Amino acid sequence: MTLFPLRTVSLPTGVPALGLLPGLALTALAVAVSQWVGRALPGVSAAVVAVVLGVALGSLTRLPAVLGAGLRFASRRLLRLAIVVLGLQVALPEVLALGWRPLALIAVSTGCAFVLTRWIGPRIGVSPRRSLLIATGVSVCGAAAIAAMHEVADSDDDDVAGAVGVVVLYGSAALVVLPVLARLAGLSPYQLGLWAGASVHEVAQVAAVGAAAGAGVLACAVVVKLARVALLAPMVAFTSLTLRRSGGRRPPLVPLFVLGFLAAVAVRSLGVVPDTVVEIVPQVTSLSLAAALFALGTGVDLRALARGGRSLALGGLATAVIGAISLIGVLAIG
User: Fold this and answer.
1) Nearest CA among 233, 272, 196, 222 for reference residue 83
2) What is its main location (predicted)?
3) What distance in Å separates the CA atoms of residue 197 and residue 201, rounded to the nearest whole number?
4) pTM for this one?
5) Cα 250 to chain centroid, rounded
6) DSSP letters of 149-164?
């Protein structure tokens, strides 16, 4: 689905930025609300709240055409900015310090969840496009990964909202279920942090699990999660290459925003980013991603989204796969 497909917005000649202001103003208001809700509800990311607001607003009212240009800008340009800035959170020396066994666990659990989810989806009635987005969100990093894959896949806004809804539901359930299962399995704090980072969907949800268990668990869980985030670029690039070879859509071989993400990872890993910048990167990522997902949400058909029972089933299976494989790995590592 394309935002406002039947409407056009004429920008003032010579002053195109003015045409963006109404849509961007609405987006800024939605982001402010989503940030407040995210702070009030630990474990709930502002990006998730923003897409819910966008879906609700787009479904309950017919948005004026004057908002279209700004919303399109937010859903495309700000989305790519969010993915690039996300790379500044990944420092490869910290990731490599985990050791080869945790890194092997992350690679295996992420890869298996991605491949199996894409294979299972069409076989239970979920479209290949939505299966791809759910596979990416569950295996890598939730809403951010879904948004990045949306840029190269032949998916629409309904697919994005459906996939985000699935990873939010099961990722939120993990906040309660994971610590309980960890106690039953007799996991140490280190093992809990490793399991949370390797299996929980959203960065904010991983941080919530870790924070509840202690500072040591939090540090381990977040670094493991960022190792999964580092897999976003090769996964998107591989999918783009696969789509080109299939003879269908021909997205760029390596999208520019993926190159930007890799460049940001390299800059952060070289240690040349000032600490003050590193500290505000998560907030910048959260703001830009929330803006992009709100704009995408406004173009969603809620009636189509409500018929998403199979998507929920696929999300549950994918969550079970990555949770089970990563738990086996955690127990093997000891």
Assistant:
1) 233
2) membrane
3) 8
4) 0.80
5) 23
6) HHTTSS--HHHHHHHH
Distant-in-sequence, close-in-space partners of 279: CB < 8 Å, separation ≥ 6? none
Distance, in Å, from the CA atom of 26 to the CA atom of 46, rounded to the nearest integer, reads 16
Torsion 289-282-206-36 (CA) sign: negative
pLDDT along the chain (334 residues), means of 10: 38 57 93 91 78 84 87 86 88 91 95 96 93 95 87 83 83 85 91 93 81 74 91 89 71 76 92 89 87 84 69 93 95 87
* CA gap 133, 114 in Å, rounded: 10
How many Cα atoms sit within 13 Å of 96 on the Cβ side?
4
Q: Is 241 exposed, middle or buried (0-12, 13-18, 19+ CB in 10 A)?
A: middle
Written as one string, the DSSP assignment of 123-150 is HTT--HHHHHHHHHIIIIIHHHHHHHHH
Helix ranges (DSSP H) in the chain: 21-40, 46-60, 68-73, 79-86, 92-96, 100-123, 128-136, 142-150, 157-185, 189-199, 203-213, 215-229, 232-245, 256-269, 275-297, 302-306, 309-333
Domain locations in the chain as residue ranges? 21-333
* Helices 309-333 + 157-185 axis angle, to 10: 40
Distance CA 165, CA 201 (A): 12
- Give the three-state DSSP class for 268: helix
The CA distances from residue 220 to 34, 206, 268, in Å, are: 27, 10, 19
Q: Alpha-carbon distance 273 to 264, whole Å?
A: 10
The C-alpha atoms of residue 107 and residue 139 are separated, in whole angstroms, by: 10
